[in-house]
Specification:
Layout (H helix, E strand, L loop, with lengths): L6 E3 L12 E6 L2 E7 L2 E3 L7 H5 L2 E6 L2 E7 L10 E5 L9 H19 L11 E2 L6 E2 L6 E2 L4 E10 L2 E7 L7 E2 L1 E4 L6 H13 L2 E13 L4 E12 L9 E8 L12 H16 L6
Parallel strand pairs: 2-6, 11-16
Antiparallel strand pairs: 1-5, 2-3, 3-4, 3-7, 5-6, 8-9, 9-10, 11-12, 11-14, 12-13, 12-17, 15-16
The structure holds zinc ion.
């Protein structure tokens, strides 16, 4: 396995030429890619000099500068390029580059949403040294928006509770998740979402880890929790179905790179360790 790439984030663009830089050109949650013989790759800035000139510096991936730029609504991809949902690139990109792509979407969205001050309408200006724009009149700062969300794997003995979201394009089962309401602690969100989505009470919440998920403009904060009571009930609208699953008899679960999958895989390894089986 090749060593993983390193990304060093930055704000102020270096003085060197942008020609060899990777350009993450975003429209909503889509990214512009080059297509050659069925292979999708990220374009170099030299292929799109006008876009590159106004792009935001993201940082350096190994030795390559990375820039992000929003595409206007009427942008027509040049020959050999097209826009694709950024999420779908997880198969083509390594984990580190995929994370940079997510960052790029957030930065492009921030650029589009905060060109003008939301308070007085004056064009905003970039602030050096941070990811911020500021109104020159009333000095209101505008930062990229991040919406925290919790994600929790609910367990009972060797079983886990997984739910099938009615809106998933594919019939897969995942962990319970939801956005944090204003004024709520992360723990309160976990309890509320578990009750709302699958009707159960929880105990023994433990923090698992977090994952930026810019494809949903969010930061996913992961927990493990034990079932404390209640019968599984779903609303049939947001959640179509929820069930207990044994680690030996799992349905289709989320793909690699997602924190939902990390939670599920971690629990499977714990159960196997309890049963004296090798992990994986
Ligand atoms: Zn203003």
């Amino acid at each position: 396995m090749s060593p993983s790439k390193r990304f060093q984030p930055g704000y102020d663009p270096p003085a060197r030429s942008r020609d060899t830089a990777l350009l993450f050109a975003a429209r909503g949650m889509d990214l512009l890619v080059s297509e050659s013989e069925g292979q999708l790759t990220l374009p170099r800035a030299s292929a799109l000099p006008e876009l590159a000139a106004s792009a935001h510096f993201l940082g350096v991936l190994d030795d390559t500068d990375c820039y992000s730029v929003p595409l206007s609504g009427d942008f027509a991809p040049p020959e050999g390029m097209k826009t694709v949902p950024a999420r779908s690139l997880y198969k083509q990109l390594d984990e580190v580059t995929f994370a940079v792509a997510g960052r790029a979407l957030s930065v492009a969205e921030w650029e589009v949403n905060h060109r003008f001050c939301g308070r007085c309408g004056t064009p905003t200006q970039l602030v050096a040294g941070e990811r911020a724009r500021r109104c020159p009149v009333d000095h209101t700062p505008f930062y990229p928006r991040i919406s925290p969300a919790v994600i929790v794997l609910i367990t009972r003995g060797d079983q886990m509770l997984l739910a099938r979201n009615a809106t998933f394009p594919e019939p897969l089962f995942s962990t319970v998740a939801g956005f944090v309401d204003p004024g709520e602690s992360l723990e309160e969100t976990v309890h509320r979402e578990a009750k709302e989505e699958v009707g159960v009470d929880l105990k023994e919440l433990t923090y698992f880890g977090s994952q930026p998920w810019p494809f949903g403009r969010s930061l996913m904060v992961g927990f493990m929790a034990e079932y404390a009571g209640g019968d599984i009930t779903v609303d049939g609208k947001e959640i179509a179905e929820a069930r207990w699953f044994d680690v030996d008899d799992l349905p289709r679960i989320p793909p690699r790179l997602s924190i939902a999958r990390h939670l599920i895989d971690t629990f499977i390894d714990r159960v196997k360790a309890r049963r004296g089986l090798p992990p994986g």
